[in-house]
Specification:
Strand content: 15-25%
Mean pLDDT: 90
Strand order of the largest sheet: 14-15-16-18-17
Structural class: alpha/beta
Helix content: 25-40%
Bound molecules: iron/sulfur cluster
Low-confidence stretches: none
Largest sheet: 5 strands, mixed, barrel
Number of strands: 18
Number of helices: 13
Distance between the termini: 41 Å
Length: 436
């Protein structure tokens, strides 16, 4: 459950267990044991996770819980799940892989002859075979007041360059055409290792910095997309790589707000940066750049003027892709203690106003693409009307828009094709497949 980071953890657990000879099955009935990888971020996610655990207990009865909710504590420090889900085999937190394996081994001893050859070299994936998430670090050193991720996932821990590159190469060899680089704070990669030197498999020294890692990834010759970057000055250099065509001209930067007081109350990384100037600089370096972001409307204490400031920022910044959440008080988050909590209706109403402004911006920006020729990666083959579904470089799977591609050819997921854009909707494009 939850975000792509949890999905990557599930893939790792599946891969390990499969390599030990365990079989993965699709129903509670066929399973000897169920592992629920939970999310503990928003209250809705907690409720969904608890529901999933209860269902697994009801339908199967032998359940191991892992993931963020496993690490969640009540205010008095007792684990949240012990009394909520009695009877489970065991509860582990995010990234506690060995504990999961140990619990599995004791509850269901490993079969004698592992079918090692059944595991693809790149591990088992929950994503379609043409794209994959690549997690480069775990945890976070920030203290955003609305977030409990650092409590759940701990401090920043960057993976070694060689390990990341080995995984990326295996993914490419297994047919992956697009890598989504994820972490809690991608731009901080290597900070915990003091940006020291690491060695690649072929013995080259690479500095543990996001720029250097992107240069390595850029050599793979597949799409590389960056998520969860922060508007620090050093990101300018990464945008230069995008302008050179080494990695996709796409930056996912969760700004969360624009007003300096609110950003300070949120304790956002780079709160003091002059974001609009930074965006202009990035666009000057790489005019093709797509900027995606997320925001929170109705943060405790947010005044109407401060919200208006956010809307003005939005109009000025002309971001390509934007998501907005109405502020939701997460148990254990420091922001809950801030004065000026807003009623639900106000938070929702501000979110709606925000999205109204953005939908017009989005439609206008997409309209400018009409007549252009875009490289598109196909996600779904054509239907009986000859319309396939794909994404341009500007669209990450699941969170951004799509392009409907009319074609006479037989296209399959992962095909890269040239498409002439003929029309746009609010968030999506329409186009025709052209032969090169
Ligand atoms: S940067 Fe802030 S929002 Fe993101 S994981 Fe860290 S504390 Fe949470």
């Amino acid at each position: 459950m939850g975000c792509p980071k949890a999905l990557v953890d599930s893939e790792r657990i599946m891969t390990q267990l499969r390599s030990e000879g365990y079989d993965l099955v699709g129903s509670y009935h066929d399973a000897d044991l169920v592992i629920v990888n939970t999310c503990g971020f928003l209250n809705e996610a907690v409720a969904e996770s608890v529901e999933a655990i209860e269902e697994a207990m009801r339908e199967n009865g032998k359940v191991i819980v892992t993931g963020c909710l496993g690490a969640k504590r009540h205010l008095d420090g007792t684990p949240y799940l012990t009394d909520v889900c009695p009877g489970v085999v065991g509860i582990t937190g995010p990234g506690e892989f060995q504990k999961v394996y140990d619990l599995v081994h004791s509850a269901l001893p490993a079969p004698h002859s592992p079918w090692l050859d059944l595991v693809p070299k790149a591990g088992l994936k929950l994503t379609p075979s043409h794209y994959a998430y690549l997690k480069i670090s775990e945890g976070c050193n920030h203290h955003c007041t609305f977030c409990i991720i650092p409590q759940l996932r701990g401090k920043l821990e960057s993976r070694p360059v060689a390990e990341i590159m080995r995984e990326a190469r295996l993914l490419k060899e297994s047919g992956v055409k697009e890598l989504m680089v994820i972490s809690q704070d991608t731009s901080a990669y290597g900070m915990d290792k003091r940006y020291g030197i690491d060695f690649t498999e072929d013995g080259r020294a690479v500095q543990m910095r996001i720029l250097d890692l992107c240069k390595e990834l850029g050599e793979l010759g597949i799409w590389v997309r960056l998520h969860y970057m922060y508007p620090y000055a050093h990101v300018d250099r990464v945008v230069e790589l995008m302008a050179e065509g080494k990695i996709l001209p796409y930056l996912d930067v969760p700004f969360q707000h624009a007003h300096p007081r609110v950003l300070k109350a949120m304790k956002r990384p780079a709160a003091a940066e002059e974001t609009l100037k930074r965006i202009q600089t990035w666009r000057k370096i790489c005019p093709e750049l797509t900027i995606r972001s997320t925001f929170i409307a109705g943060f405790p204490g947010e005044t109407e003027d401060e919200f208006q400031y956010l809307l003005d920022f939005l109009k000025e910044a002309q971001l390509d892709r934007v998501g907005c959440f109405a502020y939701s008080p997460i148990e254990g988050a420091a922001a809950n203690e801030l004065p000026g909590a807003l009623p639900d209706e106000v938070r929702e109403e501000r979110r709606d106003r925000f999205m109204q402004v953005q939908s017009e911006i989005s439609a206008a920006r997409l309209a400018k693409k009409i007549g252009t020729i875009q490289t598109v990666i196909i996600d779904e083959p054509e239907d009986e009307d000859g319309v396939a579904i794909g994404r341009t470089m500007a669209d990450a799977p699941e969170i951004d828009g799509i392009i409907y591609v009319t074609t006479d050819a037989h296209l399959k997921p992962g095909d890269m094709v040239r498409v002439k854009v003929t029309a746009n909707e609010e968030y999506d494009l329409v186009g025709r497949h052209i032969e090169v």
